[in-house]
Amino acid sequence: MTFRVAIAGFGAIGKVVAQRLDQGIEGLTLTTVAAQDVARAEAAMAGFARPVPVVPLAGLWEHADVVVECAPAALFRGLAEPALGNGRTVMVLSCGALLDNFDLVDLARRNGGRILVPTGALLGLDAVIAAAEGGISSVSMISRKPPQGLLGAPYLVAHGIEISGLTEPRRVFSGTAREAARGFPANVNVAAALALAGIGPDRTRIEIWADPTITRNIHRIEVEAKAARLSMQVENVPSDDNPRTGRLTALSAIAALKKLVSPLAIGT
Asked: How far is Cα 130 from Cα 180, in angstroms, rounded to an integer?
């Protein structure tokens, strides 16, 4: 069986995933992409070995068995709802937006759809998911990013927090994963993924730091559970095209797609 894959969003993540599919992955075929800047996407698509059409976001599901969502969080529901309502699988990278649209899980259940959240820029989600089966008492994460990767975040704008010209690390947020996902929709989808894997968005604690002394996006996770104590840290290299996104995110989506069709699947 070959899965038809459509990609929503053709930026730093979507383009990398599309290029890998264009190179060839057994059992997967790229059928179409959707982008806000259609002309730019069509120009980029011209360099592919097997160019595919650029179509409107809402109709993307018609061309696919699996829709990979790499679009801005504000567009999430508009592409996910029709896909899930028609029994498609949606791989969600803007999983912060999923927290405020959780009714889509019921929609998927009723219509034979499926929502997949890949590990993204984190590590150890398999361990968190396993630990949750035995009970978790606390989950916390401290995220540190170069200031340019946080510029324009709604939380910073709303609270008048200026991070340009910082000379030392500054904590700019402390709160729940749900609050972090709303306040930093382009930055901390990792917080939502961690919350969904563990004890939920209202019990998962998040700190966000703007740190001019680093060049990587650093996430430190601490989990207290009955089965284990987990301490994990990942240092992600930012994407060349978008400093808000780590390179690992696109690679995680590719790995998750391959897992759909591989006769050998590693991990929980």
From this structure: 24
Cβ–Cβ under 8 Å, residues 193 and 126: no
Q: Catalytic pick from 145, 219, 244, 247?
A: 219
Domains of the chain: 3-121+248-261 (3.40.50.720), 125-243 (3.30.360.10)
Coil, helix or strand for 92?
strand
pLDDT at position 50 over 80? yes
Q: Is 219 a catalytic residue?
A: yes
Query: HSE-up of 65 (CA within 13 Å, CB side)?
Result: 11
Is the pTM higher than 0.85? The answer reads yes
- How far is the C-alpha of 52 from the C-alpha of 107, rounded, in Å? 29
pLDDT of residue 121: 82
In this predicted structure, what is the pLDDT of residue 65?
A: 98
DSSP per-residue codes, 201-250 = TTT-EEEEEE-TT-SSEEEEEEEEESS-EEEEEEEEPBPSS-TTSBHHHH
Indicate whether 111 pLDDT > 90. yes
Distance of CA 256 to the CA centre of its chain: 12
Cα distances (Å, whole numbers) of residue 229 to 116, 126, 131, 202: 26, 14, 9, 20
